[in-house]
Amino acid sequence: VLNRSEIKHKKQQWNVCALRDYLEMIRNDEKDATIEATDLIDTYFKWRKAQKTEMFTIRNLESILRLSESHAKLLGKNILDEDSVLMAIFLVESSLWGSKRIEFDKKRIFIDEEYFNEKKKEMITIIRN
């Protein structure tokens, strides 16, 4: 799920100790955000505020930032990029609001890279217009 790759022959599993060690290692790893990522977070926040159909607060914005950073850390990325921000946005959109602004399959968006890329373009177009 994390890297959207299919494991065809042999399932790779981490034991609890290895997972705990990995999470401990990445926990305090600060990520610098790309300009595109920070612009996307800002644009999404402004777009959500303009909708005026739900309450969208600074706390919601902070949640998206934390989720974005967590996604980047889990994938072992050196920076917080636009894809991690979009994953956080899709997660928030699929969980907090019943009236999503973009339709997507909640199961496919996180595991199908082609589908994610298609919906990513759609989401960026919607919030930037």
Automatic annotation (TrEMBL):
The domain of life is Eukaryota
Enumerate the spans annotated as MCM AAA-lid domain.
Answer: 19-96
Q: What is this protein called?
A: Putative DNA-dependent ATPase MCM protein
The species is: Trachipleistophora hominis (Microsporidian parasite)
